[in-house]
Structure formats: C-alpha cells, structure tokens
Amino acid sequence: MIDYNPKDWFTFVFRLHKADTVRKLLPMIVAICLYSGLVAWLEAEVWKLSDDSRVKNISMLHSLLGFVISLLLAFRSNSAYDRWWEGRKLWGSLVNNSRNLALKMNALLPEEDRESRQLYRAMIPNYAFALKNHLRSQFKPEEFVAAGGLEAQHLDTTRHVPNQLASVLLRRAYSLQKQGVLTGEQLLSVNAELQSFTDICGACERILKTPIPFSYSVFLKKFIFFYVMTLPFGLAFSLGYFVIPAVAFVFFVLASMELIAEEIENPFGTDANDLPIDGISQNIRKHVEEIL
Amino acid sequence: MIDYNPKDWFTFVFRLHKADTVRKLLPMIVAICLYSGLVAWLEAEVWKLSDDSRVKNISMLHSLLGFVISLLLAFRSNSAYDRWWEGRKLWGSLVNNSRNLALKMNALLPEEDRESRQLYRAMIPNYAFALKNHLRSQFKPEEFVAAGGLEAQHLDTTRHVPNQLASVLLRRAYSLQKQGVLTGEQLLSVNAELQSFTDICGACERILKTPIPFSYSVFLKKFIFFYVMTLPFGLAFSLGYFVIPAVAFVFFVLASMELIAEEIENPFGTDANDLPIDGISQNIRKHVEEIL
Amino acid sequence: MIDYNPKDWFTFVFRLHKADTVRKLLPMIVAICLYSGLVAWLEAEVWKLSDDSRVKNISMLHSLLGFVISLLLAFRSNSAYDRWWEGRKLWGSLVNNSRNLALKMNALLPEEDRESRQLYRAMIPNYAFALKNHLRSQFKPEEFVAAGGLEAQHLDTTRHVPNQLASVLLRRAYSLQKQGVLTGEQLLSVNAELQSFTDICGACERILKTPIPFSYSVFLKKFIFFYVMTLPFGLAFSLGYFVIPAVAFVFFVLASMELIAEEIENPFGTDANDLPIDGISQNIRKHVEEIL
Amino acid sequence: MIDYNPKDWFTFVFRLHKADTVRKLLPMIVAICLYSGLVAWLEAEVWKLSDDSRVKNISMLHSLLGFVISLLLAFRSNSAYDRWWEGRKLWGSLVNNSRNLALKMNALLPEEDRESRQLYRAMIPNYAFALKNHLRSQFKPEEFVAAGGLEAQHLDTTRHVPNQLASVLLRRAYSLQKQGVLTGEQLLSVNAELQSFTDICGACERILKTPIPFSYSVFLKKFIFFYVMTLPFGLAFSLGYFVIPAVAFVFFVLASMELIAEEIENPFGTDANDLPIDGISQNIRKHVEEIL
Amino acid sequence: MIDYNPKDWFTFVFRLHKADTVRKLLPMIVAICLYSGLVAWLEAEVWKLSDDSRVKNISMLHSLLGFVISLLLAFRSNSAYDRWWEGRKLWGSLVNNSRNLALKMNALLPEEDRESRQLYRAMIPNYAFALKNHLRSQFKPEEFVAAGGLEAQHLDTTRHVPNQLASVLLRRAYSLQKQGVLTGEQLLSVNAELQSFTDICGACERILKTPIPFSYSVFLKKFIFFYVMTLPFGLAFSLGYFVIPAVAFVFFVLASMELIAEEIENPFGTDANDLPIDGISQNIRKHVEEIL
Hints:
5 copies of one chain form a homopentamer.
Chain A: H1 9-14, H2 21-46, H3 58-108, H4 114-135, H5 161-178, H6 184-209, H7 214-239, H8 243-265, H9 277-291
Helix pairs in contact in A: 2-7, 2-8, 3-4, 3-6, 3-7, 3-8, 3-9, 4-5, 4-9, 5-6, 7-8
C-alpha cells in the first residue's frame, strides 16, 4: 500500500505515479485514439456522410446505456472495495486478537513459566507471518521464530501451515489447563482469541479464492468493449476530430474503474494498492514482544 | 465455479465461454434482430411515416424510463450478489468451524481415545458433504466415511440428514463430558463450533428456498419485455436499419443482468457461476484429516 | 409465498398471476388512460396549441425530476426488501435455534426423563406456531400440542402468548439445573438458544409495527401522483394519442414499485409475497419431532 | 409516530396531514412562486430576451447537476433512515432484553424472595422510562415505580439517571450470587441482558448527539438553495409563466427530502415521525409485570 | 465537531462558517472563474467560432460522463461517511464498555478494597484519554490520573501507551481472581469489557491508517480536474460569459464532495468535522467517577 497525503491535489493530478491507471492503460489509450481518428476520417473523408445521416443518432444509444454502464461500474467498485475493506478489517482483527491474547497470557502465566511465555511470544507473531505467506502461496523460514522446541524445519510446508501454528497455540492452552496452571474459567476467557486465528485465516482464504462471479466479469468487459468501440461512430459526426480525446477520455474513465476494481479485489498481494500486510505482521511482532 | 484470471481482457471479450450470457441469449437476440428489422421496414416502406411523425418521440419515454430500469437492475444484481456472497461466507464459516473443532478436539481428546478421535475425524467432513448433497436434494453414500459404528446405510435418508450428523457430533461431546473426559468449561469452549453446523445449514436452506419476492420477478421481466419491444418504434425513426444491432445490444445488456442475477441467486447448484462447494467439502476433509 | 421457477420468462411476461401488480393496478391504469386521452384531445382539438407553445417544454421538468423519483423508489424498494429479508432471516434463525435446542436437549436429557423430553418436543414447535399467530393477531388452539400439563386453554390469550411459552422453556431448563439433571455449564451451553426465542419475537414485532416513516410514505405518494398527472400535458404535445399507452406504462412502472414495496414491507401476513411462515412452523415441528 | 395504513392512497394524496412536508414548506413554496413569477415577468416583459438568448441554455447546467443533487439527497435519506432504523432496533432490543431478563429472573428467583422479584419487576421498566426521559433531557418522577427502598427522590437527577438504575440491576444480581441465591453459571446466564441496558443507552446517546457531519449539512443546503434560485432563469424561457408551478414543485421535492431527513435523523423526540418510545416503555412495563 | 441546529436554514445558506467548503475552495473558485472567462473570450473574440462549430458538441461528453462522476462521488462520500460513523460507533462502544466495567467493578469489588476501586476509577478514563492522544500521535501527561502506584512518568511513551494501560486493567482483574476476590464466573462476566478496549483501539488505528485505496484517490482527482477543465469549452458556446458562474458552481459542487470526504475519512483529528473525542473522553471520566 502506498502512504499518501490525500489532500495534496497538485501531485495527484500531474504526476504519473507507478500505480496510476493512466500508466497501465496508456497502450490501450493510444490504440483507441488511432481507432477513433480512423473512424472520424472515414466518416468525413471516405463515406462523406450527409448532415442528416442516421449514423449521427447512434449517440442516442450511448446515452441510453450510459446509466446502465455507470451503475454496473458502481456496483463493481462497491463489491471490490468491500472485499478490500473486509480484508483490512480481518487483519485489524488479527492485530487485536494477537494483542489481547498476549495481554491475557502475560497476566495469566506465572512469571516463572518462561517456556510458555516464550512460546506465545514467538508463535502469536509467527501466525501472522505464516498467514501472510500462506495468502501469497509461499513459505519464508526466515520469518519464523523458533520456540518451545518448534523450529521452521519442523513445519510440514506441504500441509496448511497456519493450521499447524494454530494447533500449537490451542494445545498449549488446553495442556496448561490440564496441568492446573489455568483454571477452567481462565481457559474460557482466552477461548475467543484462540479460535479467532483460524476464523481470520478462513475468511482471508475466502476473499482470495472467490473473485466476483465469472459471468459479471465477462459481461462487464464485453459491455465496456462494445460501448467504447461503437462510441466514435456517433460522436465523430458531432465532434469531428475532437472525437479522439473524447473517446480516449471515456475509455480512460470506464476502464480505470474496472482496472482498480480488479486490483483491489484481491488485497493480499504486493500490488501498489494492496494491504500492507508485511507491515502489519511486523507490528504484531513488535507489540507482542513489548507485552509478553 | 470457474477459475479465471480477471486481468485477461482479450479472451473475455472475444471468446464465447460456456457460461457466457451471449451464448444463452443467442436465440432471443436473433429473434429481437428480426423483430427490429421488421419494425424498421414497416416504418420506412409500408407506413412511410413523415419526418415529423409523433412516432419519433416515443424515444422520450425510453430515456425517461431508462433510469428506473437501470436502478431496478442494479437493485436486482445487488440482492442476487448478496445472496451469492452470503452463501460463500456460510461455507467459509463451515470451513473455519470444522477446522477449529478439529483443532480443539485434537488438543482435548486423550491420545488413547482413538474411537472419539476417529469419530470427529470422519463426521466433521461428513457433515460438509451431507450439507452439500442436502442442498442439491441428493444423498451420496460414497461420500460418507463410516466411524463410531455409524455407516451410510444407518442414516435415514427420508429425514433431514445433516441434522442426524449434527446430533452425532453433539451427543458425543456431551457424553464425553458426562464421562468426565471433558470438563464443563472444556465443553463450553467447543459449544460455539458444535452449534454452528446447524446454524450454517439453516442459513443455506434459507438462501436456497427464498428467491427474490415473486412480484419483483414478474414485474422486472414484464418491464424488460415491454421496454425492449417498444424500443424499435422510436429508434427506427432515427436510426433506420441501424436499429437492428442497437436494439439487440440494449436487449443483451438488460437481459444479461437479469439472467446473471437469476443464476447466482441460488449459489449451491452446479452451474458455471455456482460456488465450488464440492471442492470446499474436499478441502474440509483434507484439512481435518491433517489435524486430527 | 409463491413457489416459482425464476427462469421461466414466458409465463412471467404473458400470464396475469393473482399477485401480479398489473391486476391490482388495472382500474387505476384504465383511469389514467382515459385522463391522458382527455388531455391529448383537449390539447389537439380544443386548445389547438401551436407548435411552439410552451406547454411542450413541461417535459423538461419530468426528465429533471425523473432521477429523483427513480432514486426515491430505489431507496423505497431497498428498505422494504431489507425488512422482508430480515424477517426471513429471523424465521431462519428460529428454525436453527429450535433445531439446536432439540439436538442439545436430546443429548442432555436422560432417556428416562420422558416428561421433559415430551415438554421440549411439544413446546419448541408450539413457540413457532404461537409466534406466527401472534404476528397475525390471532390464536389457534388447534395448532397447540399439550405437554407437561400445559394445554391450550391454560394460556391467557389476553396476554402475550409467546412470552408464556418462552417462560415454560426457560423455567424447565433452570429447574432441571436446580434438580442437578443439568450442570451449570450444560445450562450455559443452551442459554443462547433459550433466549433467542424472545429476541426473534421482539424483532418480528419491530418489523410488523414500524413501517417506513410516515412522511416518506406521504411524500412519495404525492410525488408519484403529481408526476403522473402532469406527465400527459408535456408528452401529449410530442406523442399525440400515443400518450395514452406511454403515460399508462410510466404509471404502471412507478406505482408497481411502490405497491410491491408496501406489500413486502410487512412480510408476516398471508399475501402472495409474504413469507411462508406457516410452512416454516410445520417444518420446525417435523424436524424437532424427528430429533427428540 | 403516526399509525397509518400504507395502502390508503387517497387520503395520502389529498389530505394535508399535520406531519406533511407540504404544510411545513408552504411559506417557502409561496415565496418561491412569487420569485419565479418575478423572474418570468422580468425575462418576458423587462429584458425582452430574444429567442436565441444564451439565458435559455442555463438549463443545461441544471440537468448536468441534477444527477449530483439527486444522489446527494439519496445519500442523505439513506443515512438519516439508517439512524432512525438503528434507533428502532435499539429500542426493540431493549424490549427483548427486558423480557428475557424478567423471564430468567422469574425462573431463577425463589418464589419467597418477594423483595428481589419486586425490585426487578419495578426497575426493568423504570430503566426504559428513565432512558426515554434521559434522551429528551427531562426527568419524570411520576413514571418511576419505587421498589427495594429506592424512590424517585433518591435518584440524583444532576447525574446520569439510567446509569444509576443499571447499577441497581447489576448490584442486586451480583449480591444474589454472593449470597448463594444464584450460582456462578446462573449469573453468567443473565450477564448479557444485564450489560445490554448500558450498551443500548450509549448507542441511543450516540445517535442523539451525532448528526450528519456539519460540512455535509451546510453544503447540501447551499446546493439546494442555489440550484432552486437559478432554476427559473433557464426554465422561464422555455415555460413562460408555467415556470411558477414547475419551480415550486422541484423545490417541494428537493426540500422535502432534506426536511424529512432532518426530522428522522434524531428519532427520540416527539415529532410526528419519531419513534413511539413512550408506547414501547409502557409495553415493557406491561409485559414485565405479566411475567414477574 | 461543531454543534449545530440542522433545521436553521438561513445561517447555513448565507453565513460562511469556518468549516464551510466555500471558504477553502475560494482561491480555486476564483482561478476557475478566470479560466472560464478566458475560454469564453477566446471562443467569442479570438477564434470567432461559427454557430455550427463542433466545439459546441463537447457538452455531449460532459453529460455522458456526468453520471459516472456523480456515482463515483456518491461512492466516495459513502465510504468516507462509513468510516466516520464507524469511528463514532467505536467511541460510543468505548463509552459503553467503560461504564459497564465501572458498574460491574462497583458491584464486584468489596467496599474496603479502596485501592482496586481507585485503580479502575482512574485507569478506565485514562485509557480513553491515552487512546485519543495515541490517535493524534501525542502524549499528554496532564490527562493521566495516577493510581495504584502507576504515574504518568512510568509509562514508556516510546511504546504503545494504550496497550500498557490495557495490561494494567487486565492484570488487576486476573490477580483479583487469583487472590479469590473474584470467582471464576465473575471474571468471565467482565471478560468482554476487558478485551473490548484493545479491540476498539485496533479498529481506530485501522481507520486512521487506511485511507481509500491510492488508485481511487488519484483517479478521482484526475477525473474531476479534466472534467472541469474541459467544461468551459462546450458550455461557453451555449452560455457565453454566463459560463463563468456555471463552471464555478459545478466545480464547487464536485470539489466540495471530494473535500468533505477527505476531511471526514480520518475522523480522529481536530478538524471542524472530526469526532468530539476530547469531549467523549471527559464524559467517560465524569461518568466513571460518578459510578465508582
């Protein structure tokens, strides 16, 4: 994710940032300009359409469908943003549960039980790093802090890594209760935090694996394509060669909305708009180590 | 559900995928083309309408109602997508609860209680498969793994199968507590997972059995039909034979939105856009067997 | 509620179903047609308005306000649909809690405590039936199954009937705990289900007793009325006698949206679009009796 | 709140109810009519603008901004309605929690502990009345039923009254547990109800004290004002003196939406659209007294 | 936050409040006026465009894109308002949890345990003040009330201050239980409140650190800029020098919506629209001190 000052209009309008859609759409925009110019030239020079040609009225169609395409793109943006924001909430919730579990374990565990303290101190942040890497289909042993006899090479990377860590966290809590270190009620008071890790992991996997239904994706792309491709025919009549920037601008607007939606729909990658889950994981480590 | 790369525009625009609405609407689109052509021919050749005929102004009506129909379709898409996404969340929650229950049972059950471990190892995934089949009004004995003396043929398929499995899961937990294997607090700490199965089942049944209110469905279809049927009268005047692709395109857009909404509204079937609940069930089996 | 196949366009478009808004609006539509015809005749034959009369431009007003009325109706439909869907969720939740309570009581109660089993077996479904009848301001003794010495005539129908049944369910659970049949933790594990009945009842009462704020209802009806009444003046100029079907169609669209919203806003009645709460109550009885 | 039959169109359209926005806006509507008439007269008689005057095209601006103002008002209505509906949900939840607490206390308290029963029988409804009065910045001793030695004059009305009652409810529950009348688990089973009172109170205070952000309120009012004030200039050209009802109607529509939103945004007062919290409080008293 | 009476239209429309967007946009509005005047002068006096110049039709583009820009701004306003409102809910929830914890501790702690009572009396409000200052990246020792031996200078301001206070609150509760002052069930009954502090803190940090995705911010600003910059070319043709107020008004509307959204998106600062978290913190102190 890019840190930025949302109030600084100047650089927003004039600088071409790496994540700017203008940059990504540039080749397409150039192609659209050439195409629109060609259509304008054909209409004016080759077909020499008369002033009352019906081609002029094709624009009626575009203004009729302008509503539908706008609403569809708004729907698309909304659903993509909701996923992005839900992903952010899930990681925020991971921060909260990591902190609360650390705070509670700090209060519950006897000072002398160094080993259990060390286990939670290492494994709570390990879970965040493991989840981050799991969502990016990778495993980074260097981000794993060994504790309680569990080292990075003991993890079976062909199986679900976050589950293995959640299992460590849960087993220790139940075994502390069986040993009498924790009472039954104390166990219940950390139950919500302990099970939240797996809930968060499952919800992130859901966002990752379920893009918008295939039919919407196909339909919206076909719709934008045909809308923009037919646009110069009607407009060239009224706008002449001004049709070139006009169609390019319309294309820029419609395609940008689809492009941004595609990018933020899966918020766990390393794109410019993706969530700063590397930083969040480091924060969890920092805070948990401050507490425990 | 179809796995796809949402960033690959080219194949989206030009390939006719099996789930593409163009494919399904093709016969209707051809019919609309013929009808629009007929209207254009009648206006131009038979009725020979003069340039100031009032027929021309029928388009005013279509632009007036264009906004209403767009908003209605947006409302329809939103509510259908919400069901689809809620269905996905429910199955995500089934994954989470299955994993958490397995993780906790793994920590709680003594190593030597092979039979109880085997029971949860088999029945947690059995529930997912039974729910999937229940939502499709079928029962597949080959997807049932026998454990604890319960085999596929013991299930009464004329009654609610997921309830029978939920009952097995619950009874074992309570009987373990009565035997003293689990303490009261340990029982409470798995209570949320145990009752979640039936909650998820009920919520899926709700989505399955409750489409959008009948009146909206009728009203929207009548509205689209009359809107498209009257469209060529006004447009043919301005567009001549260009009315044929224009009306076909408008019909394609409006009908696609209704068609996709219908399809995703019930997300538990085997259509191209439906949720991958077969795969999710297999995943639950895989992960639970890794854990327990 | 009407069971229907949402993919069957043909019958939707051409059949006049009982719940169809066309049917209900027919007298009004006929009146609007006569009124529009009268306006068209007055403009053409009596007032003999010239072609540049300013009456023609009244349509500007209608297209200006077309957005606002469409957005208002979308807002109206959304809020009505949300109530309908919330009502459905509440009854789905009643199903889930009834099943979970039955499943848990089945696991908790000793086989020999026939009387308590019989009590829950009868009273859980009785609650659903009582709530259904309460929401329709009626009481049907024939839908009450006696158990534990409680018969239909013992209920005080001048007081809140569902509360009396919730009290029976709760008292028995607490007295079972006082007798030592249930432990404290077992009691806690059924606490959520026991209190959910009253929560669901209260939420249904809220939906039933609170329609959309009075001012919106008045405002929207006044707005639609004046919008449609002034529509023919502007349109008759451009459309001549075509104004008759045009205004009728606009009226049909706007009034249908308001009409459907009114109907589904209170989803507990016996209208065609209302929720199938009779069937759900019977389902609860069937499933609870299968379980307990 | 006004009880009404939403299906009765006739009286809605033709009667001027007390809460009708027409009534409140009447002076403004008259002023707008005079102003529009003046503009129309100036254009036609004084400035004698020619037919191709650019003043005519000012309407382009109004149709361009028509979208924005409509969407803003829809956003305003949505956020105001959400508050109103959240307020209703909170009071519905107060009903549910009052009933559930009464039902549980009825089952938990021994028949002979008359004093505790009387305390909850009086204080649960007292809380609802106190909250209602607190939200209206008043205190009505006549709505307070004394019990357990606590009388209206013992309350410190300079401090937060609902908190004092919540404290009474909580202290009694904890002291019953300390005396052994309630077990620890029984205490936990009423914990959710006991803390809900303060949560509901805080949420109502939030709605009461936080209107829509100041900048939106200013911006929307300025926008409506300038939009309506400039409207007659463009329209008078096309509509002549018909501009008077036209501008008045547009003003009525836009201002009504803002007016209704303002009114329902704070739903705890005694306006016509406000929530029936007097009635709800009485209902809580009636039901709690039936139960306990 | 500014306290205001939303029903007072007069001052809203005519006074230039400090937080008014007109004030902030004034330099830009002046610049836009000059620019529009220049374009109008160039078109009329320098280029002397003929009446059928295609430049006139550029307005088609603006009305085509007017819908998209409106929907985008509505989406922007919605998402910013949702954050603002979520922030308000979180602080409302902090109020509720602070009060409930104080009420419960008051009931639970023995009268003679002055020291624990004093600790909660001081630390619950300290948490609110510390969170407020943490969200503004500051630390104010004068807002900290010492208790239980913990003074402002003992806090490590280089580390996460709210976490240190949450740790104090949690440790005391667990140590009271270890000492037998609280029973296990009593501990569980305050568990939700104790962990809510950290959850609220984490959620506020999430809102603070995550503005709308960078790409939307860039795209929207570019879109508004080019839309407004090209607007005078088309409009000057139809409106002449009236284009100056017209473009200024359009700019005022579009930029205000973006400006307000930017401002309320981060609601924890000290801007005019920000949440009154200073006042809320003081309220928490006042109420907690009344209770404990």
